[in-house]
Amino acid sequence: MGLKTLLLLSLLAALELPLAAFGGHVGGSMPGSPSNMSRSRAGGSMPGSPSNVSRSRAGGSMPGSPSNVSRNDRGLQQVVLAAAYSFNNQSNDAFLFKPSLILRAQRQVVRGVKYIVDWKISRTVCRKREDGNLSNCDFQPAGRLHQTFACHTEVWLIPWLNQTKTLQFHCGP
Questions:
Q1: What angle do CA 70, 75, 104 make, to 5 degrees?
Q2: What is the DSSP string of 58-117?
Q3: I want to staple 158 with a disulfide (CB 3.0 to 4.6 A). Which of 79, 83, 84, 163 is the partner?
Q4: Which residue intervals are annotated with compositional bias (Low complexity) in the record (predicted)?
Q5: In whole angstroms, what is the distance from residue 27 CA to residue 169 CA?
């Protein structure tokens, strides 16, 4: 079996397309080809065939698609903290806000790393004119000054170019 045929079969398996879409074979039936192997095996389909790929992928995700990331991921923490500083720079509030909860976080590898995050940001007791270090700021207690916003952020990091691009960033009550 040639390299092109093998690549095409791998692609078909990844896309879960049956070989029937190409007339039931690609480049003819050869000993050791998937069409002959699936018939000769006692168990039916061979590993990597479309029917097995769909079963093995049930618990995983497609390569290149977003996947859940731990809330403790260092890159995620940096993205959320940078977004909080951006929020504070754009806000007219007298107090600083800092991240209070990460609801959902995903990472996608696309010519760099794209973080997709749904999170909450809450008002702290620190005034903007004071220390800008958010780690020293406690959240406002429940009451008149307590305020929280829900945010959605998508940031694309391209480390080899030392670039960070904010694709989406919005917060609301």
A1: 40
A2: TTS--TTS-EE--TT-HHHHHHHHHHHHHHHHH---SEEEEEEEEEEEEEEESSSEEEEE
A3: 163
A4: 31-41
A5: 50
Q: State the virtual CA torsion across 120, 125, 79, 155 in degrees, nearest 10.
A: 60
Going by C-alpha positions, the residue among 4, 29, 116, 100 that lies closest to residue 66 is 116
CA distance 160 to 22: 41
Distance separating alpha carbons of residues 169 and 62, to the nearest angstrom: 26
pLDDT tens string 156-169: 999 999 999 999 99
- Rounded to whole angstroms, how far apart are CA atoms 134 and 131? 8
161 vs 86, 131, 157, CA distance in Å? 21, 32, 9
Instruction: Report pLDDT digits (tens) over 69-88.
Output: 999 999 999 999 999 999 99
Give strand pairing partners of 97: 123
3-state secondary structure of 161: helix
